[in-house]
Design goal:
Structural class: alpha/beta
Organism: Actinocorallia longicatena
Pfam family, one: UvrD_C_2
Number of helices: 27
Low-confidence stretches: 484-513
Number of domains: 4
Bound molecules: adenosine-5'-triphosphate
Protein name: AAA family ATPase
Keywords: ATP-binding, Helicase, Hydrolase, Nucleotide-binding
Distance between the termini: 44 Å
Mean pLDDT: 87
Strand order of the largest sheet: 3-4-2-1-5-6
Strand content: 15-25%
Length: about 725
């Protein structure tokens, strides 16, 4: 039965009041659960005072679990219950942010991720999953303010009231506050299929702008951590987005779902100690991102390091033994070949090889005639004392940053590049590495590659090994570590320090775990092969969720990138090892109004003629404004953009994004904080209530994938879009079908 007319309001109020009673009961119980969690936390701290080592470990685990729980319970306090299902053969079920049970373990609210909640998202009139009526409860804090019903089996609905007036569509039109929100109460069926897809292998999600790819990927993380906590909670979940602006935009979603344990990183800050601050030019991006950089970097790591000596001289029994540069180079090459390029780890091998070569040379030049009967180990013991300093300079322990900076020398870069690059490219690439203070996004992937080629530096053992041949005058010349002749108690102490260090390293940011159980990659269409290699190293055993829209790709050579992606995900290679892959497509655009989507579709038709646009569902009655300023200068266009912003400030309440071509000045405007100026690459994945696009003609032509980048720009707005162009032709392109 559908309530109509003035009665509608009263019926609805009565229904809301009834739901409120039910919700209040859940909140009372939630409060008790929070008290329990706090008691557990305190219990944990009391155990700490008891003080034995094993109780400390128990304490840590207990406090950790209890604080996670307390956090999740706090988060659930806002809009705890958001759904109700009336079923054919079961009492009504309530769906909420977390599961709530009575003291006797009867279910009051089921967690949205639990199997029983699936029907809330999946049921349709064609496939009702025994649901008669689905009801969404909209709340503010503890108060239910609106309800919206869907009747799935009208023939069975006797006695059920049906109310609602399109609150879902209305919720899509809400004002944006600058950061993304969770969508638990309104997840759509096709989105739910992705969120609950099998945990094995790889899930690939494609869809146009605004189809909820990012939202869905984040909810999938919450789902996986809830259903497979042991598996994914232990090894960790990594979420990677394109840039720091984007990670700041999405960082509140998981905490709002009670999930604080996933690691969120941008492509620019995946490598500890190297934060990217800029994008390279399209040409340099293409060079640095290409898979052939692997070869170049391997050669750079195995080359003679800058400043390394060209001559080793030792004197034994009056015999002068020399190893010159060609001999030294040969030794270096052999050691690298045997150690497969992990240069830092190979220092001990290098020391051994030098010793062998010195001895061979000593014999070769007749040393045994001058010092008859001398044994190799005597010669070696003597020679070692003389070559400690040489070894540190000739085989230095290097950092990735030093190696990359060393390629600012065009000769060195030319040697490393071999035939992979043209001379002009070498010059431009070399000067890009001369930046002293800032790395580019692509540089970060190169640093990571170098890190894997260098391997870990030899680790100090903190144990005295008097018999270690490389301990000279109390210093281990391989690791650089000082070793005193410690008393046994000291040895004991040093070992426990070591244990402590290892334990601490787990939550030390600089040494964070690099092999995750699950990796989520957002905006994956933009990744270069080198970036895929960087991600692959963080998920060697991982399952993956990859989210992308090829039509928004800024990366030119999608094919090479696809191969690198398959290698990272373990979906390439022979059939036996191939991990299963589940592909999904999202088809509804929840962000743009129909009017804004129409402009985006016109750009898409030029950028990727064969692509199918997603379907926008919300009409606003406001067409996009495409304003033409023939022959306007950059300054004049920026001035007009500012005027457009001032107009928009009166039209929308939330955020306004001014999207500029790459390299345009992002000048200071005297405008409220809700206005942001950014370049097109920074706009990836973001959304604003209103967007102002400046110079589509320049965005479209300033890189080979410019049209696709423009497609990103025009699909950011939820309510209003203004475009400023100097070109009549672009005016026509954007306004006429
Ligand atoms: N089921 C839903 N209920 C309510 N809002 C939704 C739903 N799905 C998506 N949205 C909203 O639509 C907007 C776009 O979602 P999202 O940013 O995840 O899209 P996307 O596919 O990642 O877009 P892009 O490709 O442009 O990065 C967000 O504001 C999101 O909250």
């Amino acid at each position: 039965m559908s309530a109509t007319g003035t009665a509608n309001g009263q019926v609805k109020d009565a229904e809301i009041a009834a739901e409120q009673e039910r919700v209040d009961v859940a909140y009372v119980r939630l409060e008790e659960m929070r008290e329990d969690a706090h008691r557990m936390l305190q219990e944990g701290f009391r155990t700490a005072q008891a003080g034995t080592k094993s109780s400390l470990v128990d304490r840590d685990a207990m406090v950790y679990q209890a604080s996670l729980r307390a956090e999740a319970l706090n988060v659930a306090d806002d809009g705890l219950v958001f759904g109700r299902l009336d079923l054919t053969a079961h009492a009504p079920l309530y769906v909420g942010r977390i599961g709530v049970r009575t003291k006797d373990h009867d279910s009051l609210v089921i967690d949205w991720r639990a199997p029983a909640a699936e029907a809330f998202y999946r049921a349709t009139p064609e496939d009702p999953h025994s649901v008669i009526r689905r009801r969404v409860l909209h709340s503010r804090g503890h108060r239910v303010i609106d309800i919206e019903d869907d009747l799935l089996q009208p023939s069975l609905s006797d006695g059920l009231t049906v109310v609602g007036d399109g609150a879902f569509l209305a919720s899509l039109a809400r004002t944006r506050e600058g950061s993304m929100r969770d969508i638990v109460s309104t997840i759509q069926r096709e989105q739910d299929m992705v969120i609950r897809a099998p945990a094995d292998g790889t899930v690939i999600v494609r869809g146009g702008p605004g189809t909820g790819k990012t939202a869905v990927a984040l909810h999938r993380v919450a789902y996986l951590l809830f259903r497979h906590r042991r598996r994914f909670g232990g090894r960790g979940v990594l979420i990677v987005g394109p840039n720091a602006r984007f990670t700041a935009y999405i960082e509140r979603v998981l905490p709002s779902l009670g999930e604080g344990s996933a690691v969120l990183r941008s492509l620019g800050d995946l490598v500890p100690g190297a934060a990217a601050t800029r994008h390279d030019s399209p040409e340099l991006t293409r060079i640095k991102g290409a898979g052939s950089m692997t070869r170049l970097l391997r050669r750079a790591v195995t080359d003679h390091p800058p400043g390394a000596p060209d001559l080793l001289t030792v004197v034994h029994a009056g015999v002068v033994v020399r190893l010159d540069r060609p001999r030294l180079d040969k030794i270096r090459n052999q050691v690298h070949q045997r150690s497969q390029g992990t240069a830092n780890t190979a220092r001990r091998k290098a020391a051994d090889a030098l010793m062998d070569a010195l001895w061979d040379r000593f014999v070769e030049i007749g040393g045994l005639v001058d010092a008859p009967g001398i044994k190799k180990h005597e010669f070696v013991a003597n020679a070692r004392d003389q070559f400690g300093g040489f070894l540190t300079a000739w085989w230095p322990i290097r950092t990735p940053a030093e190696v990359l900076r060393s390629l600012a020398d065009p000769d060195r870069l030319g040697r490393a590049a071999g035939r992979d690059l043209k001379p002009a490219q070498i010059g431009r690439l070399a000067s890009s590495f001369a930046h002293e203070t800032d790395w580019s996004y692509q540089d970060v992937a190169l640093l990571d590659e170098i890190d894997s080629l260098l391997g870990k530096p030899p680790r100090p053992t903190r144990q005295v090994r008097e018999d270690d041949p490389y301990v000279i005058d109390g210093v281990n010349i391989i690791t650089g570590e000082e070793v005193a002749d410690w008393e046994p108690e000291m040895r004991e102490l040093s070992m426990s320090i070591d244990r402590y260090d290892r334990a601490r390293r787990v939550d030390d940011e600089a040494e964070e775990a690099t092999d995750y159980g699950h990796v989520v990659v957002d905006e994956a269409q933009d990744l270069s092969p080198m970036q895929w290699r960087m991600l692959g190293r963080r998920g060697r055993q991982a399952t993956w969720t990859v989210v992308e829209d090829p039509a928004q790709s800024a990366w030119e050579d999608l094919n090479s990138s696809r191969q690198a992606m398959a290698a990272a995900l373990g979906t390439a290679g022979n059939r036996k090892n191939v991990r299963p892959q589940h592909a999904f497509e999202l088809t509804t655009n929840y962000r743009n109004t129909v009017e804004i989507a129409a402009v985006a579709t016109r750009v898409l038709a030029r950028a990727v003629p064969e692509a199918r646009p997603a379907r926008a569902v919300r009409t606003s009655g406001h067409d996009a404004a495409v304003l033409t300023f023939p022959d306007a200068s950059q300054a004049a266009l920026l001035h007009s953009a500012r005027d457009a912003v001032i107009d928009l400030l009166g039209q929308v309440e939330g955020t306004i994004g001014v999207i500029l071509p790459l390299g345009w000045p992002q000048e200071e405007w005297d405008v409220p904080d809700r206005v942001q100026l950014l370049d097109v690459l920074e706009a990836k994945g973001l959304e604003f209530d209103a967007a102002v696009i400046v110079s589509p003609e320049e965005i479209a032509t300033q890189s080979p994938m410019g049209l696709r980048t423009l497609y990103v720009a025009v699909s950011r707005a939820t309510q209003r879009l203004t475009v400023l162009t100097t070109s009549k032709e672009w005016h026509t392109t954007l306004t006429e079908d």
